[in-house]
Amino acid sequence: MTTCSAALMRRARAVMPGGVSSPVRAFGGVGGGGSGGDDPFVVARGEGARIWDVDGREYIDYVLSWGPLVLGHAAPAVLDALHDTMARGTSFGIPTELETRLAEAIVQRMPQVEMLRFVSSGTEATMSAVRVARASTGRDAILKFDGCYHGHADGFLVRAGSGVATLGLPNSPGVPAALAELTLVAPYNDIEAAARIARSHEGRLAAIIVEPVVGNAGFIAPDPAFLPALRALADEVGALLIFDEVMTGFRIAPGGAGERFGVTADLTTLGKVIGGGLPAAAYGGRRDLMMLVAPAGPVYQAGTLSGNPLAMAAGLATLRALTPELHDRIARRTARLVGGLRESAARHGVPFTADSAGSMWGFFFRAEPVRNYADALGSDVAAFRRFFHAALARGVYLAPSPFEAAFLSAAHGDAEIETTLDRLDDALGAARS
Ligand code: PLP
Fold first, then answer.
1. Which residue segment(s) compose the domain that 25 sits in?
2. What is the pLDDT of residues 201-222, one digit of tens each?
3. Among 71, 218, 248, 389, which one has the highest count of C-beta atoms within 10 angstroms of its own C-beta?
């Protein structure tokens, strides 16, 4: 039977590579969708915790546009802000008050971010933060961690986790070797390896960049000593510490990783939640560093749609609604979901590990905890694929890759959590080999 999704994807594939606007959306990592090949379903609409595909199938959504939708789909607060804003025009390329208001809201919640610059994607944010780090230190090399993804700028497509891992591409063709060589890579949670590499490149290292909680190799929490040790290492070798909080920002704590782990980064990159589902991202941090950015300083970085009023309005509405109380409520429900999944897996005798931080969570089909990307790769990927499809068939949409984090929104109430646990318990049973 040909579904509407399959027919639409056939048309899409004729005019867009793989029929998608971003590779992680294809179902290649889970052996294709219902219509075969890499085809995902095509979505028609979303409301609250749920989405509906063009064939009318309903799913409880744990991808949430890959993280931004912390209030859920079509959140009334966001839609109202958008309606009000768009009636006055959609883009000006001239400062608006909305930018200052969102910047103030972020700075207030994240004290380590003293100033920031808005951009339109996480890729731009990380790319620009590294430019500032290189300019301020006069050095070229950066240290990243295996499996961490920091967007698709050339220098970051080295051992870059999820999307790249799902497609089995170790690195991307098209990245000049001379650029890739400037990116050093250490295993996550391995401070000895990071220190060895950093010290052997002393005087060359501009920045250490890290996802404080990894979301792009699946969900991996930092060991308690890891982030403080990275802070000390960066200071020792004279490099800047960049927390890439594009995914963790306003998810793992109301004030992000600085608040959760008590470690202050020099620069922080943000995206996803701060745009409330519209394209907005930012990089920010110490005032002296941000004053290097043009026009205040010499580091050039610009964007036609940066600080777009619609994106600013959606982000502002989202942050306003996301009070510490709401953050905690979502975090509690996330913990309940993760705990329930662990119980299910134990009941079914399935090797399984799951964890969460705030409203970000994830799991692996593996008995032992996952501490780094190599561990993640050692999980049972075939079991994940069976589980993914069993969950989808039961109306639960998980990311179509074993190497992606999942999310929860304010719209996932207790009823949705219990329904999900019932469905996923059934899916776990069905997915047992
Ligand atoms: N950094 C992290 C930690 C991310 O998770 C992502 C995207 O998932 C990015 C950067 C890139 O953001 P964008 O997809 O908006 O370019």
1. 1-30
2. 989 999 999 999 999 999 999 9
3. 218
